[in-house]
Amino acid sequence: MKAIVKYISSIFSALKTLFKGMAVTGHYISHPKEIITQQYPENRETLKMFDMFRGEVVLTHSESNEHRCTGCSACEVACPNGTIEIINKRIEMPDGKKKKVIDKFVYHLSMCTFCNLCILSCPTDAIKMSQDFEHAVFDRSQLTKVLNKPASKLMEGVR
Amino acid sequence: MAETATNTNTGKPLETQEYFINMGPQHPSTHGVLRLMLTLEGETIHNVEPHLGYIHRSIEKMCEKDTYAQIIHLTDRMDYLSSHMNNEAVSLAVEQGLEVEMPERVKVIRTIISELTRLSSHQLWWGVFGMDLGAITSFLYGFRDREMIIDIFEETCGARLTMNYNVPGGLMFDIHPNFQKRTKAFVEHFRQKLPEYDQLLTGNVIFEMRTKGIGILSKEDAISFGVTGPTGRASGFSNDVRKHNPYSAYPQVEFNEVLREEGDSYARYKVRIQEMWESMSIIEQLIENIPEGDYKVKTKAVIKLPKGEYYQKVETARGEFGVYIISEGGKSPYRLKFRSPGFSNLSALNHMAKGVKIADLVVIMSTLDLVIPDIDR
Amino acid sequence: MNIYDFKSLTDSIHTSLSVNLSPSAVTIIEFIIIAFAFMMLFTLLGLILVYAERKIAAFFQLRLGPMRVGKWGIAQTAADAIKLILKEPLVTKNADKFLFNLAPFIIILSTFMALGAMPFAKGLHALDFDIGILYLTAVSSLGVIGILIAGWSSDNKYSLIGAMRSGAQVVSYELSVGLSLLTVVVLAGSLQFSEIIASQEAGWWIFRGHIPALIAFTIFMIAGTAETNRGPFDLPEAESELTAGFHTEYSGLKFAFFFLAEFVNMFIIAGIGATVFLGGWMPFHIGNWEGFNRIMDFIPSLFWFFGKVAFLIFLMMWFKWTFPRLRIDQLLRLEWKYLLPINLVNILFMAFIVLMGWHF
Ligand code: SF4
Ligand code: SF4
Predict the structure, then answer these.
(1) Structure ipTM over 0.85, yes or no
(2) Which ligand 1 atom is the nearest neighbour of the CA of A121?
(3) What CATH number has the domain bearing residue B211?
(4) Please, are residues C270 and C228 in contact by the beta-carbon 8 Å criterion?
(5) Is A147 in the pocket of ligand 1 (CB under 6 A)?
(6) Is the Cβ of B209 closer than 8 Å to some Cβ of chain C?
């Protein structure tokens, strides 16, 4: 007799636990407000990354197309995986002296691990992380970027 | 019964055979590229042989050419769900070599973020565990709550998973002004949502049938296999590094080391659920008054560790993570060895899975909470 | 009585055909019409149910589900169907080609045969046997042969395990489905669907049959879910254990057949449940509330049937998206230690009630 009572009560307690679980899912299906899906790309306008977000490395340029990179290669050294290549050139200054300036700041986005070490190492704060996250391209070669804009110059007073 | 069956043509008894099946490297429940060679008889498992090497990136070797600051970002990519704790282990080891004491602020922030990482890891584990059992819905509930933590990380350090937030000598940035507010909001939210986890799975009769008594690991075996973390603690092996070798701000906080005796899958599940409560209480103790001060100490641009050997262990979401550095005095280590918790935990799998069904193997593997890149560095 | 009767429609088709055609030609044409109607129904059901499942699962999981193809993703399943048709039908190298290709058709066949005996609405009933229930339970379990063949022939150990699981599962749960239906047969006194429905005019059996009917209904839902291989009993295709179980190696249209059959099977189980326990296309009546009953009569019988079916399907989806999966031995234990004995006692109990005339 006891066994039968136990058998039956086990069925009911089991059913109870099942209903408990169904109550949770039932709650969510009856509360569509709780839905967490974001409709990307429809929400592109409102979708804003946090300021700190590490999207990609960019070289900041002022309005007069000047940047702050002296070509010191500190970032190239700091980078753990050879993402940055600094290619310098020598130009002749008006006063006849030769000066080393940056020719190309090559950045391989496909290799970057977004570790932020380059940014920290730059003595002149020339580079920073942008919040851009839409990196998809159709051709891999487009991921190798030259960050200094054409004809850009070193900002006055930065050394 | 198989022994008594006979061939109807010859009248001889049928031969039964063990057979092999490859579970993985591409399999939904190995959570990565782990390959298990199963020896089966029917659905019963006779032997499990894990094969590694599908995601080996020779991280330890790479560390030998990197500077100490660069090593940190590699540890992100081992146990990516406990990236902060891995970072912390290397940072602490290097700081130990440099003989610098961290400011209180750094310690407290490191501890809070560690616990948040542990929470997010356990949440993800909970979701995935439900999915392995066939209750796919839990997956998304776990992710919903995890998203709040990930947002905190993203706002504070700019990355969602591979955070690289610790540097030898402190933190990379100071915390975001919103950090405290968001963290408190999260703890409040999650205190309400965690009982829901219990409602959905813990008490469920099917869930209990599937987990209770499955994959029992005794305390002795846990110790001899070196199984640590929640998995070891579910077998009664007290191994919490936060308690036994406290680091950062752990000496200041009150918390219980969650221990259970049963050592089965259910115990491992309960330990993790309970740890989430503990983590929340640790965060609550620290979040109110984060001490003022510097977020990093001044170190040389290129750190050189004095000649010697340094070891530091921390408690990650999966267990004891150790870093062993041998320095020859240069700017990169002469040799660096990681003790990853997942590797030792995986080694106990064969022992636990002998004689169970395939479905149970999935449960056991899931409760070990394996992260394959952590095992296969 | 009900004002929407499909009998007049079918009769008028029949008489208009009979005017200038021989009886055998009429029969053939009617066969073709019915076959065509069922094929349409089959595809339609597949499309709608897959869409419903995806949406409902999404809402259970705090997601939105398909949203891209058409408004609210309405055309998503149609797009998926086109994709599946265009896909290459792969066959594994060592597969038993004949059986491999045969399996999906067996499954489809069994679902078609079962669908044929469904009473959709008043007068809308392709086959009305006097052994309707027996026929339905018999053919709806033919599908397991297809699953076994699929698992065996595709030369994949995962498929084979899935198929063996499925065999064990369907064979056991057949019993419970049959017995729980018998409980109502005891009440209704007939195996013919039309009579079972007619016997529920005064009220559905689930209400009139006291506790035994309720128990039988619960068991039917559990066993029915198990028989269609749906979660929490989806062991034959448990994706976290066996990747995709018996249809791991199928692709393209053949996979689509398995996929559709699963959903249509769900419809069939829900249809049987609705017919036997919830009065089929009978409207909901309460005792002698004349006004209320009349309003209920205005809702066409087709809607009543599909509404009830939709409700039962929703229940099954709710199960699937809440519960963890059982293990194979637990699954069998549930059947042989719980459902079957309870069912047997339940039938006795019901017979006793009917004998004493205690039901309404
Ligand atoms: S973020 Fe890291 S990986 Fe990327 S360029 Fe900078 S240093 Fe290199
Ligand atoms: S970006 Fe900064 S660190 Fe890199 S080369 Fe230019 S100035 Fe030097």
Answers:
(1) no
(2) 7
(3) 1.10.645.10
(4) no
(5) no
(6) yes
